[in-house]
Amino acid sequence: MSDTPARLLKLLTLLQTGRERTGTELADRLGVSPRTVRRDIDRLRGLGYPVDAALGAIGGYRLASGTAMPPLLLDDEEAVAIAVGLHAAAGGTLADVAETSVRALAKLEQVLPARLRDRVTALQEATVPLYGLLTGGGDAPVTDPAVLTALATACRRRERVRFAYAAADGAPSKRHAEPYRLVSADRRWYLVAYDLDRADWRTFRADRIGAPRATGARCVPDRRPPTPDAAAFVAESIVSHRARYRALVTLCTPLEDAARRLPAGTGLLEPLTPGSCLLRTGGDALDWLAYRLGFLGVPFEVHEPPELIAYLRDLGTRLVDASYGTPEPRGQEP
């Protein structure tokens, strides 16, 4: 590779992977001599890149942390991911982080090529953040950035899409839908769309979507989900999906404390006052809902459903009665 600037960029890309590479390996990858590699390493150091070198027969080069941040080389998917992440942080609740994210996003978008700027814009316009949702513990599912980009573009252009979908039990299916919005929540992505085959609005996990393809057919212009707010629609779908009872509860503790006390998958938290928050949750059994709330260790008030309110009153009466002593068996005089 005789073009020095292009060779330096490729060399930097190889070093940014984090692993140590020998001079011979770098020379083979670049198509130059080990001596040229050594000169190029010196050039990178002169530009401010801290390249460490290990001596010896098996020594090599690696990019180390420096005192200043030199320019980074990002591939297309990395640049899009960073831009989307900064956009989400810019709309967050932490003022310092939000302000810094806005500045960083402006710098990044200024240098993005047109093809990437369009992808970032489509994702930003099609995505709605959902805060306070606890969807589950463990590692976040891996979502293909290409899938998100294709869905966001279809949302932006109001085009129908076809895609493969895997249900929670792994059962495969083919879907034909009108995409509406993407919703990001708790390290997960969801697609709100009208399922044309089932004639109903649905929420799809983006990590379970495969090979989305725009058909070119336009979506029905005035079709909107039952809840115009896509984030609220996803929250309702996740929290109360197939639940027999849907509960609305005020927790007398700050939202941050409630989030620490509640197990993942419990529901959606919304701030009310600095010292209280609203919990939307659901379940099929009243006793399970009652125990979940009781073991939080904070005062609370149930607004609905009435069945849960009645159950808690009856349970409270029985617990108070039990606290006065052991009840006598039925049919015997005290």
From TrEMBL:
Pfam families (UniProt xref): HTH_11, WCX, WYL
Domain HTH deoR-type: 4-59
Domain of life (superkingdom): Bacteria
Enzyme Commission designation: 6.3.4.15
Principal EC category: ligase
Keywords on record: DNA-binding, Ligase, Transcription, Transcription regulation
UniProt cross-references to InterPro entries, sorted A to Z: CBASS_pafABC_assoc_protein, DeoR_HTH, HTH_11, Tscrpt_reg_HTH_DeoR_CS, WCX_dom, WH-like_DNA-bd_sf, WH_DNA-bd_sf, WYL_dom
Gene Ontology molecular function, alphabetical: biotin--[biotin carboxyl-carrier protein] ligase activity
Protein name: Bifunctional ligase/repressor BirA
Organism: Streptomyces rimosus subsp. rimosus
Taxon lineage: Bacteria, Bacillati, Actinomycetota, Actinomycetes, Kitasatosporales
